[in-house]
Write a structure and sequence with these properties.
This protein is mainly α. Helices cover 71% and strands 0% of the residues. The C terminus is likely disordered.
Length: 167
């Protein structure tokens, strides 16, 4: 019985491998492993939704089980996978899913921290710009209000005009 390809969402950026042979070949098995690997990386980058990751992991597991069944059908002289193989693969899949979820939560927390820092520095930059513009607009007013005699002299007599103008 052929192994069905996973049904992926339209947002999944990882291409689904070609339909495997029946029984799956070594190349089919390798493509399934690569597909699962690409799904994990895509999910960590935010390009593959969790539902697609789980669907792809199920497909990869079926391919692994298909490879194990194929080995069991071979002649007696060929070594078979150990009985714990299926459980180990399932446990490994569950561990990977847990690690991916943890990494996803950590990335979201890091993004929130960075977003907060960007907003904080944005407010600081806005305050500095506002303060600078207030200082610049009051520069002329400070000169004439604190030194009115210099301002009046430069406008009346021409003496000290250069000094008042430099302040």
């Amino acid at each position: 019985m052929p192994i069905e390809l996973p049904q992926m969402s339209n947002t999944c950026t990882v291409p689904v491998p070609n339909q495997p042979d029946d029984p799956p070949s070594v190349h089919d098995f390798g493509r399934a492993i690569r597909f699962g690997h690409d799904l994990v990386l895509g999910h960590l980058q935010g390009k593959v939704p969790e539902t697609d990751l789980l669907s792809g992991s199920t497909y990869t597991t079926r391919m692994s089980l298909g490879a194990a069944e194929r080995q069991q059908e071979q002649p007696a002289g060929v070594s078979e996978p150990p009985p714990w193989f299926t459980n180990a693969m399932r446990d490994l899949k569950n561990e990977l899913i847990d690690e991916i979820r943890t990494a996803k939560h950590e990335l979201k927390a890091d993004i929130q921290i960075l977003d907060h820092e960007v907003q904080k520095y944005g407010r600081v930059v806005t305050a500095v710009r506002s303060f600078s513009s207030v200082i610049a607009s009051q520069k002329t007013g400070l000169t004439t209000s604190f030194y009115p005699q210099l301002h009046n002299q430069s406008s009346v007599a021409g003496d000290g005009g250069e000094v008042a103008g430099e302040l």
